Amino acid sequence: MRPPASSTTRDEAPTASAEDRWTVRLGDKVATRDNNFDVLRLFAAWAVLVSHSFALVGRDEPLSWFGTSLGHVSVLIFFAVSGLLIRRSWEYDPRARDFWAKRALRLLPALAVVALVTAFLIGPAVTSLSLGDYFSSWQTWFYPVRVTLLWTFGAPLPGVFDDNPHPGVNGPLWSLPVEVVAYFFLFVLGVSGLLRRRGVVTAVAALSLVWAAWWVTVTSTAIGATYVLAGFAVGAAAYSWRERIVLAWPVALALVPLCIATGLGPEPLRVVTWTLAAVYLSYWFAFAVPPVGRTLTRFGDASYGVYIWAFPVQQAIVQVGGPDTSPWTIILLATPIVWLLAIASWRLVERPALRRKPRPVRPTA
């Protein structure tokens, strides 16, 4: 039997319409691995490094005139991406044990390594205390345990970077327990069956935006940064609406001046607008933009490694160079060092750990 006739032959492929060239439906792309997420996350991680290169020597960070920082916006991008991808992961494998095993294997092995190296290699090299006093302190021995258990807020090491303009051992790690909180809420919705109800997920996302707009007005700048949880919630809701979300270049381009305008207005308005924009622009860049920057990720997914290694390396550079070190000097010196550490982390720690992730069980016939 011959196949049914087609209106086009192999040599006469249908021509893509202008709309097809300028728009992509999220639902058509979300399951594919052919996206720009690795490049986006790597850029966001490096942007955190750039932001901290200014903050660590007491200079105004990029985007400070908007009442925020490039680092905070980058973390918001991480949460926006994570909301979509973690929600997708639950849909593919909604088993509680496997869900948490995957999250632990992604976060903890590399985090444990950076904590050990910081405590027992970087710390002794830069501490203002004698080595005897350093190694006799309980903080030295407790630091790797504390960090690996995600108790990262203000985790100190004795005499380490205390005299730098911006004290702190590894500031960016604050976001990791916050991300686990986001995982927990998604997990609760998943096991309760509420994650399948689009109205519930949408309501949670809307309430998270209301909370974020209020939260940044009643707390400190540092604690207020936890509003990035709203980005995760909106990203998870976007998965529920994936068949109706169109990623269009005109919309993406229009969001840029909108963010600039709202960034100069009241902080609650900026937080809501930038959160929604971060979600949309992240997915637009991942799925609607042609492949870009793939050479940067050909050696591995270095984004997490860059994020967790950059701060102590930058602090060491500031300690050696002094408080007058130029932020651009810190960027130029730290970037290749952190890049090599991140690639080593991916190849020696992260990728081997991820190979142990549980695989979804195929349904039996």
Task: List the main descriptive attributes of the protein structure presented here.
365 residues, two-stranded antiparallel sheet, 64% helix, mainly alpha, disordered N terminus
Short description:
The chain has 365 residues and is mostly helical.
Total domain count: 1
The biggest sheet amounts to: 2 strands, antiparallel
CA gyration radius, whole angstroms: 22 Å
Strand content: under 5%
Side-by-side strand order of the widest sheet = 1-2
Low-confidence stretches: 1-19
Tally of DSSP helical segments: 15
Averaged pLDDT, please? 91
Structural class: mainly alpha
User: What's the count of strands?
Assistant: 2
Note the run of SSEs as H and E.
Answer: HEHHHHHHHHHHEHHHH
Which range best describes the helical content: under 10%, 10-25%, 25-40%, 40-55%, 55-70% or over 70%? 55-70%
**Rough shape?**
globular
Spatial gap, N to C terminus? 30 Å
Explained architecture:
The protein has 365 residues and is an all-alpha fold. The protein has one domain (26-354). It has 15 helices and two strands. It has helices at 18-22, 26-29, 37-55, 70-92, 96-126, 131-136, 138-148, 175-191, 198-215, 221-224, 229-240, 249-263, 267-288, 303-321, 327-354; strands spanning 23-25, 246-248. It has a two-stranded antiparallel sheet with strand order 1-2. Helix 5 (96-126) runs antiparallel to helix 7 (138-148). The chain is globular. Residues 1-19 have low confidence and may be disordered.
